[in-house]
Amino acid sequence: MVLILLVLAFGIGSINGVHGEVSSSTLTKISRINKEGPYLGIVVPNSFEMNPLLQSGSFVADQKLPYLDFSGNANPQLQIGDVTIPQYWAHTGLWNWQRYGQGPEDELALESNGDYTRKIGYLKFSDYNNGTNCNNKSSDNLLNNVWYQPEEIFPVNGIPEQRQHAFWIPVNKHYFAIAERLQGLKLGGCVNGTCLPRNPMVVRVQRGVSSNTFVDNSAYREFLNSKFNATAIDMETAAVALICHQQKTPFIAIRALSDLAGGGSAISNEAAIFGSLAAQNSVDVLLNFISLLSS
Ligand SMILES: *[C@@H]1O[C@H](CO)[C@@H](O)[C@H](O)[C@H]1NC(C)=O
Ligand SMILES: *[C@@H]1O[C@H](CO)[C@@H](O)[C@H](O)[C@H]1NC(C)=O
Ligand SMILES: *[C@@H]1O[C@H](CO)[C@@H](O)[C@H](O)[C@H]1NC(C)=O
Ligand SMILES: *[C@@H]1O[C@H](CO)[C@@H](O)[C@H](O)[C@H]1NC(C)=O
């Protein structure tokens, strides 16, 4: 069960064409490995973040499933190199885009079928007007409103499968409690003699959000922070969270912040200088987390 995430890792080399199919030989390997388990599964999206983990020489197998990476930051109180551990994750990339002329009182397209909802706030584009011709926050914008939608999930125990909706996915309670003990951990704050304004820290935060949008826009980052109280912004964790939720597999996400998404920091070129530090810090936190798990 834990190896759901390894399916991705093992599958990559074996996918033929664009079908996204996991070959039967790969599936055979996975089930053979699974027989030796259960395992600790670690998801790392790219080599930049994987290298410090491999170089740490500290791989420890366990029965649980942490998740490691680094992400953009939506909380101006935090800085690059800080490591966040959110309690909830949501996928914020599923939208219902409302037609021009309609508003919060109007039902969305297909809402009456139970497909869409107006429960999870909305993004009103005219709130972000900037310029001489429409220097009025309430003036109309043809892009109108976007409403955030929960994901549809089919829990593995549903027989027959019944569609459910999920937006905020909590990390495992036990893992989150253990993560409290990571606060105060000493992390690196300098790269080649250039130091961050304060030493990075580990913080448990309320929420992180993911979507297939690279957020390099400060207005949208501030929106995500004010609407959802999101601190970490990334492109991966919600996928892991939703699968773990569906499979009833415990997970936690450890995200070192890579930048203040969309700029706004006093440190110029911060991701280029401190990106490697962020990756190293997330590995340090992960390794400490694993040792707490097994202690
Ligand atoms: C937005 O408006 C502010 C002044 O209110 C101005 O300084 C800024 O240049 C404007 N930005 C754009 C992209 O028009
Ligand atoms: C802003 O726009 C709204 C509607 O488009 C209008 O009712 C209001 O008078 C405008 N306010 C200003 C200060 O121009
Ligand atoms: C730090 O300095 C070393 C040696 O000059 C260099 O190879 C490395 O790329 C530098 N690291 C960063 C993150 O700038
Ligand atoms: C928002 O998140 C912060 C940091 O994670 C937390 O301290 C705060 O209580 C949250 N705010 C609300 C209204 O839940």
Automatic annotation (TrEMBL):
One of its GO terms (molecular function) is catalytic activity. Residues 209-290 form the Nucleoside phosphorylase domain. Transmembrane segments: none annotated. Pfam families: PNP_UDP_1 (PF01048). It comes from the Eukaryota. The keyword Ribosomal protein does not apply. Keywords: Signal. Gene3D superfamilies: Nucleoside phosphorylase domain. PANTHER family: PHOSPHORYLASE SUPERFAMILY PROTEIN, PURINE NUCLEOSIDE PHOSPHORYLASE. Residues 1-17 form the signal peptide. InterPro entries: Nucleoside_phosphorylase_d, Nucleoside_phosphorylase_sf. The keyword Transmembrane does not apply. This is Nucleoside phosphorylase domain-containing protein. GO terms for biological process: nucleoside metabolic process.
